[in-house]
Write a structure and sequence with these properties.
The protein is of the alpha/beta class and 475 residues long. Helix content is 37%, strand content 13%. The strands form three sheets. The protein has an eight-stranded mixed sheet, with helices on both faces. Strands 13-12-11-14-15-16 form a six-stranded parallel sheet, covered by helices on one side. A two-stranded antiparallel sheet has the order 5-6. Helix 14 packs across helix 15. The chain starts with 10 loop residues before the first helix and ends in a 34-residue tail after the last strand.
Length: 475
């Protein structure tokens, strides 16, 4: 990489240049993670152009407003940065690239119909960047990518489309480590920032830049491919861990134990960190990352592939359990009216990509059941269920309910006002004690913790008696 915006300057000079807006930044992608990143960059760097293909998004941002809901502080930060002239947005990526010296890519990488990573969006952004790329510019990918993408795809693509030699510009991979609902906190330093460059100068430049952005450590790894692997491995670990506990959850009835209680107790020791079982794994991250890895290796990674298969099957497993429990009451699934609770992939986030609820509704519909749905954040009708509001549940009769996502609004459900039904609790999140409903928990209810004594033999926790009425024990 030739000397660019951070080339030979001292740390103090770099900091001053960056903070004064002398190093313009373009952020490509103003989605739920891209807009918070652009706003933080603007707050620190002072001159940020946000690029998005959606004119409505661009118009909203230029009006000083955020289109991303559920991010504390983001509305105010966007308004402030736009008002101060530090943040603006455009649909013209090539023009933005010509103005910028640092280019940050944060667009989604999804899968095609064959479960291979689809780099079309990333390559389209690279085309825009290449149209305005200058010697010494730094390109940073925050989008999660299959390991090797920066080296094997991004650098050659930028070089071919810009006419520059690869050593005339820098490329680094610096994965976002953020979650919906805490994006600003996470970007500003909740976790160490991982940085890897395609060459040493790219890594140094990216590390210097993120040292201004984050309050946490900047962890520079050997190269961009290693940094890409870090992010993918994080997702694969979670997928495999969840698959393990989901498999254990299906053994709960055979073992005659609460798998959830066993997990909760096993996690008392630091070397054990089992996740929670559930009806499936959703979102745009964990369901995709195993395929990012599988696409880049020359052999089949059996554990990774098996884990993905287990988690993809969990919506069907959940419906099978529901069908079995209904049959025990003499009700055929084909004749049942079933309420699905929760359609977003996790609580409090209006995102349904790969949500387990979609698979649950499809299986129920295929079986001939009448499917109803309730979710405070999205419309269940978009996924084939008849929508109903929490407040309208009393007065309606259902044969069963399935909790897929434990939205906070479900705490308001007046279960005593509903006719008795079977409730399959996929998250061990409902309290149905002292009601006439029969509750079946995927993996078994965690129950109350046992008595725990400190070193002096003193009781640190007094458990309450275990209930056996199907409701969750009161704590």
């Amino acid at each position: 990489m030739s000397a660019g915006p951070y080339g030979s300057a001292s740390a103090r000079e770099r900091r001053e240049a960056f903070a004064s807006g002398e190093i313009p930044v373009a952020v490509y992608g103003l989605g739920k993670m891209g807009l918070p990143l652009a706003a933080v960059y603007a707050d620190v760097a002072g001159d940020v152009i946000g690029v998005d293909v959606d004119p409505d998004v661009v118009e909203t941002v230029n009006a000083g407003e955020s289109h991303v809901a559920g991010e504390p502080g983001l509305d105010d930060l966007v308004a402030e940065q736009v008002e101060r002239g530090r943040l603006r947005a455009t649909t013209d990526g090539a023009t933005a690239a010509a103005e910028a010296r640092v280019h940050v890519v944060i667009v989604p990488t999804l899968l095609d119909d064959g479960d291979d990573p689809d780099l079309t969006t990333v390559e389209a952004v690279a085309d825009d960047i290449a149209a305005g790329l200058s010697p010494g510019d730094l390109v940073i990918a925050e989008s999660t990518l299959p390991p090797g993408t920066c080296r094997d795809v991004l650098v050659p693509h930028l070089a071919a489309e810009s006419g520059l030699d690869p050593d005339e510009f820098g490329v680094a991979f610096c994965p976002e480590r953020t979650a919906s609902g805490t994006a600003l906190r996470d970007i500003r330093g909740r976790y160490p920032k991982v940085v890897g460059g395609v060459d040493d100068e790219s890594a140094r430049a990216a590390a210097a830049l993120y040292d201004e952005i984050t309050d946490n450590a900047v962890h520079v790894v050997s190269d961009a491919t290693t940094a890409e692997a870090v992010k993918v491995f994080e997702g694969v670990y979670r997928d495999v861990n969840i698959a393990l506990v989901n498999e254990l959850a299906t053994a709960a009835d055979d073992l005659g134990v609460s798998v959830r209680e066993a997990i909760e107790t096993a996690n008392d020791i630091p070397m054990c960190h089992l996740h929670d079982p559930g009806p499936g794994v959703g979102g745009h991250c964990i369901p995709n990352y195993p395929y990012f890895l599988l696409s880049r290796v020359g052999r089949d990674l059996e554990l990774t592939r098996t884990a993905r298969g287990i988690n993809e099957a969990m919506p069907g497993v959940t419906v099978d359990l529901l069908e079995r429990e209904l049959a025990a009451e003499g009700v055929a699934l084909a004749d049942a009216s079933v309420l699905v609770l929760g359609f977003t992939y996790r609580p409090g986030v209006a995102e349904t990509r790969s949500s387990p609820a979609i698979g649950v509704v499809e299986r129920l519909t295929d079986a001939g059941a009448e499917v109803w749905g309730v979710d405070p954040l999205v419309d269940p009708g978009e996924f084939g269920a008849r929508p109903v509001a929490v407040e309208d549940l009393p007065g309606r009769a259902f044969d069963a309910a399935v909790l897929v996502t434990a939205q906070a609004a479900f705490d308001r459900i007046d279960w005593e006002a509903l006719e008795p039904m079977l409730v399959v609790d996929g998250r061990d999140a409902l309290s149905l004690a002292d009601t006439d409903h029969r509750r079946y928990v995927l993996g078994g209810a965690a129950g109350d913790r046992p008595v725990v004594y400190d070193e002096g033999g003193r009781d640190r926790a007094t458990p309450t008696p275990r209930r056996t009425d199907g409701g969750r024990p009161r704590r």
